[in-house]
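Hi support team,

I've been running sequence recovery on a batch of backbones for a student project. Most finish fine, but this one hangs at about 90% for roughly twenty minutes before it completes. I'm not sure whether the input is malformed or the queue is just slow. I've pasted the structure tokens below so you can try to reproduce it. Let me know if you need the job ID as well.

Thanks,
M.K.
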């Protein structure tokens, strides 16, 4: 049970009190003669304030002074978090020092560039206590009471109905009418294509209707080319021009002479000149091509339409709103099983004002408590009577208001993502963890697993949505994005495209959309901001790293970022001019997350190894980076290290000491120095994928114990391309590198043995779906991959001496039941048993039969 409407900072206060009361914290304070009695008083004051949070969040709706008080309290709690984290970091520094016995390391730590000011810390604690005491006194004048509020069950939804949310309640007629237009080859247009404009207010279901049409089987079969893009935003015309450029290239390459269906979702650009340029591109397609445009603006619809009338998407009826709400509330159960809730539920549905988005989000809320009193309480909430601040609907305010506090914090943080941004689930979770929004779990689950549960719960409540079921990314509806921005208030600042406004001094989380050249003037709105926790650039369009680079002013990393001492998250990814980090990075003791992916960075300063709180270090695609700092073993809290596609030649010594590592995308073996493969034995929590490179330098592969790493589902094993092979030794090495039976994808490159060990292709790998064998030119036969029950894709390259493809390869009487793709390259002798390689590849693209069966 949790209090209704617990404020955003409830979780923060609870975590602070737990830290202050912990034995480790108390022992550290007493040993360093810090004022622990003052910390005890601070904890009492925090608990006093926590007790009135529920009443404060209720009363701020009608009393603006309470809202101001809450913001002051949030700012003070943020400051308290920074203070406690600073003390924690100093304790952690001593822990690392105690674990490291070498004299030179002790000397290095004792001369840290960021010495802890114990005397000044007592003064800062006293200042914070007095600040919170003033806020506690003000609560009485504001009439805030303890324990006011209602208890509601926070039952986590057992199943997600998001993917079934495409059920077209009230949209059958709309769908059929537009579908007929799409399937007609000639709509009377003199052009090769026709435009179908769909107009409606935000949240009415334009995108959902377009998705229904886009995924319809008849529609799919009617067109050769299908493409979907988010339209240009009214807030970002320059980004729109970039999208047009990308679209132009894609169209010229792919649609010439073919019938296509193209969806421009959420179009805002009213410029006829821009549309005329785009319209010219559509003429490359064949006669009968169609373009669906969804927009809130009739002016946009009038600009783009040619022969087909504008389709106005009306609101849903109250009955259809109820059907949609009930679907989400009862998780696909029949609502008749809850007759006491139907009457009040239908009244709530009428308040949804015909908007499917409101029905879905309220359904997600109501489904967490199937209790008549609570449903009636929501029906009578005074939030329905509020005006719509920043276009935030009352129904959406309610959906947020009744979230448990742990979800409120995570949801509000997502206001850093702009409208139309495609969320990567794993990235969002890592950011939540870095910002301290995910607590340590008592259930034994990792923070990432807890975060995944939070993400799925927000998804099930329709606060996140999946724009395309065949894609792993997620979005927030524009109105949900407005809600996140509204509830995050002045503490999250998103620098929207071509908008110049100053950030509030209290801002903690900052994001912006990258431009081609991000000059120092772009960051002027941050002048005076001193307490940033997040610095996060992002893009509204997927990046192709082969396309042009983007650049950021050197003043950002050399002048601005060094002044932000409280940063938890720094990203400079994809900036082509980032070649180094300043040594001062070691002063950022609060850092948990650094992303330098796809930069040209050449080295990391040694001071990175003093960032003892660091959890995530992303170096993906840093091709110029050839080595990691020598003292990486000190990063005892490091959980995710991505060094895939870098130039790193070997791992630093003692990598096995990083017991917290869960992600290690590559492990590079040096000839005689650096970490040996035995270090992998100690990394028992590895998951996801790993590439083990330069295996010619291995002595005993069994030391890695890959077989015991059940969460590693993707393994690449690679020897050097131009090395002197020892076939006997390499077979022994590969034998010892047998992965877990949970393996999903296996890649073996440049293996020099004459045959594969028995485990390669063995039926004991029931989950193996993808196998790649590349450059294994000494092997005389392929492994018996036909025995793999789940194999879907097989790629073989450079095996010049294949002589046996009989029962060993097929693996039994009914091999390759799941095979969908088979590709061979550079195999001169394969014609002996596959006389038509190109024909076989075409055959396999449409059939599960195996080439050579005939």
């Amino acid at each position: 049970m949790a209090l209704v409407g617990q404020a955003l900072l409830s979780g923060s206060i609870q975590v602070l009190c737990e830290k202050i009361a912990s034995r480790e914290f108390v022992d550290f304070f007493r040993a360093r003669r810090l004022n622990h009695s003052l910390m005890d008083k601070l904890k009492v004051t925090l608990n006093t304030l926590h007790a009135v949070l529920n009443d404060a969040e209720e009363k701020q709706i009608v009393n603006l002074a309470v809202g101001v008080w809450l913001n002051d309290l949030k700012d003070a709690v943020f400051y308290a978090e920074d203070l406690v984290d600073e003390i924690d970091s100093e304790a952690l520094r001593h822990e690392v020092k105690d674990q490291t016995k070498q004299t030179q390391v002790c000397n290095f730590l004792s001369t840290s560039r960021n010495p802890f000011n114990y005397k000044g810390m007592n003064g800062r604690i006293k200042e914070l206590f007095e600040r919170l005491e003033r806020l506690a006194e003000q609560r009485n004048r504001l009439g805030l009471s303890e324990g006011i509020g209602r208890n509601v069950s926070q039952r986590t939804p057992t199943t997600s109905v998001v993917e079934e949310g495409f059920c077209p309640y009230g949209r059958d007629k709309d769908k059929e009418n537009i579908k007929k237009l799409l399937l007609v080859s000639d709509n009377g247009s003199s052009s090769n294509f026709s435009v179908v404009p769909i107009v409606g207010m935000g949240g009415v279901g334009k995108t959902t209707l377009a998705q229904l049409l886009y995924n319809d089987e008849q529609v799919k079969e009617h067109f050769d080319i299908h493409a979907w893009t988010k339209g240009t935003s009214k807030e970002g015309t320059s980004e729109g021009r970039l999208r047009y450029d990308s679209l132009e290239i894609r169209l010229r390459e792919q649609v010439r002479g073919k019938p296509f269906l193209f969806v421009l979702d959420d179009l805002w650009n009213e410029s006829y000149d821009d549309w005329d340029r785009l319209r010219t591109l559509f003429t490359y397609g064949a006669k009968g091509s169609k373009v669906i445009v969804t927009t809130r603006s009739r002016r946009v619809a009038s600009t783009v339409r040619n022969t087909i009338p504008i389709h106005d998407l009306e609101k849903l009826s109250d009955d259809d709103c109820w059907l949609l709400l009930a679907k989400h509330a009862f998780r696909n159960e029949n609502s008749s099983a809850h007759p006491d809730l139907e009457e009040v539920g239908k009244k709530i549905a009428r308040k949804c004002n015909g908007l499917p988005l409101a029905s879905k989000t309220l359904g997600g809320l109501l489904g967490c408590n199937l209790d008549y009193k609570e449903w009636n309480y929501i029906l009578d909430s005074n939030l329905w009577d509020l005006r719509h601040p920043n276009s935030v609907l009352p129904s959406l305010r309610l959906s947020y208001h009744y979230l448990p506090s742990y979800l409120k914090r995570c949801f509000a943080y997502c206001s850093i993502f702009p409208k139309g941004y495609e969320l990567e689930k794993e990235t969002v979770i890592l950011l939540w963890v870095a910002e301290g929004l995910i607590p340590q779990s008592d259930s034994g689950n990792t923070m990432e697993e807890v975060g995944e549960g939070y993400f799925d719960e927000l998804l099930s409540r329709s606060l996140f949505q999946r724009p395309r079921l065949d894609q792993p990314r997620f979005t927030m509806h524009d109105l949900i994005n407005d809600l996140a921005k509204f509830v995050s208030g002045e503490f999250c600042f998103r620098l929207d495209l071509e908008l110049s406004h100053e950030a509030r001094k209290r801002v903690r989380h900052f994001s912006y959309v990258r431009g081609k050249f991000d000059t120092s003037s772009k960051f002027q709105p941050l002048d005076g901001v001193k307490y940033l926790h997040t610095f996060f650039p992002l893009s509204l369009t997927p990046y192709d790293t082969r396309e042009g680079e983007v650049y950021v002013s050197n003043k950002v990393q050399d002048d601005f970022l060094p002044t932000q001492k409280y940063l938890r998250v720094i990203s400079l990814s994809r900036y082509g001019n980032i070649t180094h980090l300043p040594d001062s990075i070691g002063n950022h003791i609060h850092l948990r997350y650094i992303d330098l992916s796809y930069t040209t960075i050449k080295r990391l300063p040694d001071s990175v190894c003093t960032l003892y709180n660091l959890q995530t270090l992303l170096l993906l695609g840093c091709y110029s980076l050839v080595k990691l700092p020598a003292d990486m073993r000190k990063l005892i809290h490091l959980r995710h290290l991505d060094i895939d596609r870098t130039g790193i030649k070997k791992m630093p010594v003692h990598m096995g000491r990083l017991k917290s590592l869960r992600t290690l995308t590559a492990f590079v073996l040096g000839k005689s120095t650096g970490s040996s493969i035995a270090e992998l034995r100690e990394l028992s929590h590895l998951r996801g994928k790993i590439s083990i490179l330069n295996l010619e330098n291995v002595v005993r592969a069994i030391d890695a114990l890959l077989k015991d790493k059940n969460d590693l589902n993707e393994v690449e094993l690679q020897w050097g391309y131009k090395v002197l092979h020892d076939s006997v030794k390499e077979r022994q090495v590969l034998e010892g590198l047998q992965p877990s039976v949970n393996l999903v994808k296996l890649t073996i490159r440049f293996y020099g043995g004459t045959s594969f060990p028995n485990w390669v292709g063995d039926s004991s790998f029931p989950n193996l779906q993808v196998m790649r064998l590349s450059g294994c030119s000494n092997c005389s036969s392929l492994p018996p991959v036909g025995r793999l029950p789940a194999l879907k894709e097989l790629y073989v390259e450079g095996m010049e001496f294949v002589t046996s493809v009989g029962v060993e390869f097929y693996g039994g009487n009914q091999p390759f039941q799941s095979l969908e793709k088979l590709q061979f390259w550079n195999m001169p002798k394969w014609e002996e048993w596959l006389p038509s390689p190109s024909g076989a590849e075409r055959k396999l693209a449409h059939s599960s039969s195996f080439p050579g069966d005939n």
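--
Follow-up from support: It reproduced on our side and the slowdown came from queue contention, not your input. The mean pLDDT is 82. No action needed from you.
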